[in-house]
Fold Elongation factor 1-beta.
Amino acid sequence: MVAVDLKSPQGVQYLENYLSQKSYIVGYEPSSADVETFSAIQAPQAKTPNVLRWYNHIKSFTDKERKQFPNKKAEFSASAASAAKPADDDDDVDLFGSDDEDDEEKERIKQERLKAYAEKKATKKVIIAKSSIVLDVKPWDDETDMKQLETQVRSINMDGLVWGASKLVEIAFGIKKLQIMCIVEDDKVSVDALTETIQEFEDFVQSVDIAAFNKI
């Protein structure tokens, strides 16, 4: 497990890169791993958009809601007191050889692996990977026009995105959330980009969660 000091610039950058491919610290729903990481990091800046998006999303939950998140372990140890590895420490990112190999040997191994990968990819049948996703879209309050909210969501048009069925699910105190399904082509549609686009409808949307995520 990698120890990451989230108070340091290196630690924040580590988290930025980590969240560039993920909606949450672990899996497809908020968990105790998100709470632990959230508690260890300072308020992020605009220069780390993935961290900022994730931070504001976790911040939108109340303390009571966070305590009810499922218990999961992160791939890294999020601690403000832990010692982050130096930026030039390549121990964890050396994909083609160990530190005691010279540059020429590492380059040879790299080229061999790239060649093997290219040959394998050239003979592999192209399969369009798709995913079925169910999104929970929470409105700002009980006065939000849910029909208009759904209209705004369905107005999002992306190559590789197809909207499906939807329904309103009561949360509490008369407030309902929009639960809507969509099919996406994995190579064309980023789930993070889709959820962020929905959250841009600030007059209607408070937050967006992934309720279900299945490969087709």
Q: What stands out?
A: The radius of gyration is 21 Å. Residues 80-98 have pLDDT under 50 and may be disordered.
